Amino acid sequence: MNIPKEFIDQLLARVDIVEIIDERVPLKKTGGNYTARCPFHDEKTPSFTVSPSKQFYHCFGCSASGDAIEFLREISSFSFEEAVEELANTVGLQMPKGDGFRPQKHETENLLQTLADANEWFKAQLRHHPQANQAVTYLKKRNVSGQMAAYFELGFAPTGWDNLAKTAKDNKETLNLMEKAGLLSVHQTRGYYDRFRSRIIFPIHDRRGRVIGFGGRILGEDKPKYLNSPETPVFHKGSELYNLHRARADIGQQNYVLVVEGYTDVVSLTQRSIKNSVATLGTATTSNHLKMLFRLTPHVIFCFDGDPAGRQAAWKALEAVLPEMVSGHQTSFLFLPDGEDPDSVVQKSGSEAFVSMVRNSTAISDFFYDTLLKEIDINRLDGRARLAETAQPLLAKIPSGPFRELMQDKLQLLSGLRNVRTQKKQLKLTQKRPDERLSPTATAISILMQNPFIACDMSLPTLSETNEMVPDVGLQLLTEIYEIAKNNPDITGPAMLERFRERDTFRFLKKLAIKEHFVGSDNLKAFFEETILAIEEQNLNSAINEILQRSTIEKLDRDQKVQLSDLYNRREKLRMKRGSQ
């Protein structure tokens, strides 16, 4: 993370998490907090809580929690830097230009500008290049209107090895950027040459609408038929979907998203007013894709060819989606006739007929068991055993909840097995754990994370001494947090948490940051001081027990006896002090 921590502190001190979340999820005031239905999972009763005092959110249903930065990362699939920039723009803060941050940002901006310039160049070739007729003929053949071509910013890469490369005019820095952006390749002897040649060009945008890569469809019979940009610093196929930035609103309105395999399918569907489709970028569906989509809608529908290759691709999508099938999520599969794709079907049958097919698509549960039963004869005992052996590892990927239980029930019905052990295990998994009581050290950390200002009003003179006697990682962490709070009087709870984002303790601290203590503000300092005394007594007890344990093995020398006596005296004074409070 290259953004200065001082900037994060300043940013989170200005941000109001209630305003940030309320713009995206309507909040309702409930007592001192705000509540809503959780945007990260489907629920009927609101369990999503936002605390204006702590500046944190927490869902009691799915355990999602964090500060304003974390919320934007989850709701919009932003990177850390993108979330920070979005918040900075919201509150009118200028992003830092220090040496530690700007170089990476500068490179990203240069790559994005290079891609934007290339996009304009490709579009200009479609309008004016002498070879553009073959591209226009292809688009007309696919019934893509000029309006749609403009809407999707379609372009053309002419035949030739260096049409785009020539636009750099031999500027080495520009050529290097174009190569890094995936626009050019390098030959050992011939130098730079265009990656995209003789192709219809489909620009690929990120969720913010910025061009991050391209897909190209060959004009003619050469291979490959489709060519995408390679992985670059700004383009990652497993994290992006074609048309997602345009389709977001329609996905929400229709309450489902249609995932297809080709760019032309998306263009054709959109032209016929089916605007909630996206396409993968020449790769199988990933967990990142699914997380993005389920944040926008509870229902994901995959559309595949009905041939063996299409069904094989669908099965891979099914395996990817199983871990995402939490309560409220739905997944379906639409299989088209052999040799057809969404583009051809919607052109032949019309949009109404196609939408009807979509709404009658196959549920994930039916596709799952229908596929297995085609390969397995459950009229035989060994067939039923094989069904159970094949299905159980896949069902284990499904998160605990009603869908997993129902899938297991169907397996039991089909196989005839009494899956008692699995059911018992499932029952155990779905039972709510009692609220675990925090240790004194964890309690002190939690209070300090939520209220860093109290460090300015008190000192912790005994912590280092007790930690020397009984080294404790938690105590070291508490001391570190105390020192940060002491040296940064204006730091907020969320800003304190961000200091530990890259540390192994981040998840632990995030839980402590939203822990309720039910202590009034008037009693907060006294409660914290009492917790510190409890930590000290706990450590004194540990030190005493360690010496007593040693005395059972060997006789204590004079110094050890003096140390033990001193520890007893300190503990007694401490207990008297605690009793007087």
Account of the 3D structure:
The structure is a single chain. This protein is an alpha+beta fold. Helix 20 packs parallel to helix 24 (524-551) and helix 24 packs antiparallel against helix 25 (558-580). It is globular, with a radius of gyration of 30 Å. It starts with a helix and ends with a helix.
Q: SSE layout and pairings?
A:
Elements lengths: L4 H10 L2 H6 L5 E3 L2 E4 L11 E4 L4 E4 L5 E2 L1 H9 L3 H12 L10 H27 L3 H10 L4 H6 L3 E3 L14 H9 L3 E4 L3 E4 L4 E7 L5 E8 L7 E3 L15 H11 L2 E4 L2 H9 L5 E3 L7 H10 L2 E7 L2 H14 L8 E7 L5 H8 L1 H9 L2 E2 H12 L5 H15 L6 H14 L4 H11 L9 H11 L12 H7 L3 H15 L5 H6 L7 H8 L10 H28 L6 H23 L1
Parallel strand pairs: 12-13, 12-14, 14-15
Antiparallel strand pairs: 1-2, 2-3, 3-4, 4-5, 6-9, 7-8, 9-10, 10-11, 15-16
Helix and strand composition category = alpha+beta
Number of helices: 25
Order of strands in the sheet with the most strands? 1-2-3-4-5
How far from one another are the termini?
44 Å
The CATH homologous superfamily of the largest domain? DNAb Helicase, Chain A
Number of strands: 16
Biggest sheet statistics: 5 strands, antiparallel
Strand composition percent: 5-15%
Write down the CATH topology of the largest domain.
Answer: DNAb Helicase, Chain A
Second-tier CATH architecture of the largest domain: Orthogonal Bundle
Low-confidence stretches: 99-105, 420-435
Q: Name the shape in a single word.
A: globular
C-alpha Rg (nearest Å): 30 Å
As a percent range, the share of helical residues equals 40-55%
CATH class of the largest domain: Mainly Alpha
Can you tell me the number of structural domains? 5
**What is the residue-mean pLDDT, rounded to a whole number?**
86
